[in-house]
Design a protein that fits this description.
membrane, cell membrane, protein transport, transmembrane helix
Length: about 450
Amino acid sequence: MKKLIETLKNIWSIEELRKRILFTLGLILVYRVGCYIVLPGINPHILSQSQSQDGLLGLINMFAGGAFSNASIFALGVMPYISASIFMQLAGIVIPQFAKMQKEESGRNKMNQYTRLLTILVTIFQASAYIAYLRTQTNGAIVTDGMLFYVSTIVVLTAGTLFVMYLGEKITDKGIGNGVSMIIMVGILARLPHSLVQEFTEKQQTDKLLFFLVELAFFVAVVVGLVLLTQGVRRIPLNYARRIVGTNAAKEIGGARNFIPLKVNSAGVMPIIFAQALMFIPAMVAGFATSEDGPNTFIKSLSDHTSLWYNLIYAVLVIAFTYFYTALIFNPTEMAENLKRNNSFIPGIKPGQPTADYIGAIMDRITLPGAIFLAVAGILPGIAALCGVTSGFASFFGGTSMLIGVGVILDTLQQVESHLLMRHYDGLMKTGRISGRQPATV
């Protein structure tokens, strides 16, 4: 406790860090207030009686911090921006012109402008779909429907998404942590206290408080496991060639040893998001089928996140998407060329293509356990719900919620620790290290 208090004092004593933290908290407060401002023409009392989102709608509501179910001006959150960013990232891999632009500062700025313009188009499309959802699923919550409501709602939702995107960029520039990720994390964790209280109340009413304590212990174990999954790396030893610099006062430089950190889970949370979006299709088929020719038992099981077939297919999809997304973002050939240009090499491996093959083989081997652990984390919420945990609290037993939360918190702590170490303070922990802290070079 004494170490924690001393660390907090050190953080508060750094003026720049203090201003960044307060700035971030202020913008997050603005975002949370906006999540409860209902769209014009919506009756919030009627809307509160029909708030049940599952599948992809539940995922969007989670990313929006509950604003989706509240019909807020921030109902779409940053999902359109995320969709546009993913599209531009994939375009940078497939289209050579975009790949060339990403390597230059001016090109990256232009790509950011393209992403913002694409965000507007995606927001308009999603806003139209959201209006259709409000008309059919909210039991008459729209007070004054018509063309004016349609146009004004699209304008408000688009402006809300752009404003949230602006808040995220400002947090990244003048605050602490990645702004967009921070906004998503705050929206996710804002649901945790309510879900915890709801779970405690239900277990208290059924005299299962001991089971509730077991749930808390398992929840802590899941968080620890996700931290290990996020921080896990495989270090490849790396040497730098010695060379002579200068003529009269020649000096030998190089010869230092370092390592290449290859993350066990390079794909992050994207495989789970892709798999959830794909598994939502059977739920749509089951929902659109009529009672006479309703879906068969197999299709129904694929729309139930606690069924065996759903979790089995979902786990396979997560593993497949992990390999797919890792292959998109990780290029061993480019890494081998960069090592060759910097006069560095892996001991016992020839530079060039042999180095690329060696790095690729190691990446394939460490991706398999990472993909399996990620798949287990993805199906844990369904297993928890099957064991009697309420749906709200079960969503925090792994899945997208905790993966995003753990990743953003670790990234933010890393930035805070960097500010402390630059000013010769101790880090956040006396032992161990936050992911990203580099050890001393031998």
